[in-house]
Amino acid sequence: MDKPEAPREKHAVAEAFERVWSQALLAVSTAEEEVNRTLQRVAAAAGWSQEEVKRQAREFTERLAGHRKGLEHSVEEAVRGAVSRLKVPRREELQEFEARLARLAERIEALGQQK
């Protein structure tokens, strides 16, 4: 009897989500680096003092942190939605199933000993 393909497919989905999440984090990091480079160019062109550069950098960093949190929330919601559509069982459901299997195994063993 062949094993079902579902675990392999779920593993592939998990890998895809992991890959997308890594790409999203890389994009955010790249954006932060670009903002810092741009801020330095603007500071030089505008003749900002070191204190003004720090203030602007702090402001941009706070904005990016807010956008990052929003992105993380969006990705988490998308993953939750995709997982629910795949009907992946929750941890509690798997634990309940495992407990049922253990009880059934005990009953089968008891029946085998009665013979």
Name the average pLDDT: 81
Shape type: rod-shaped
Give me the count of strands.
Answer: 0
Task: Estimate the helix proportion, in percent.
Answer: over 70%
Would you tell me the structural class of the helices and strands? mainly alpha
Q: Would you identify the regions where 5 or more consecutive residues have pLDDT less than 50?
A: 1-5
Largest sheet: none
Q: Number of folding domains? A: 1
Order of helices and strands: HHH
**Proportion of β residues?**
under 5%
Q: How many H/I helical runs? A: 3
Computed CA radius of gyration, to the nearest angstrom: 26 Å
Question: Could you give the distance between the termini?
Answer: 28 Å
Structural overview:
The protein contains 3 helices and no strands. By secondary structure, it is mainly α. The chain starts with 5 loop residues before the first helix and ends with a helix. It is 88% helix and 0% strand. The protein has helices at 6-46, 50-85, 91-114. The chain has one domain (6-89).
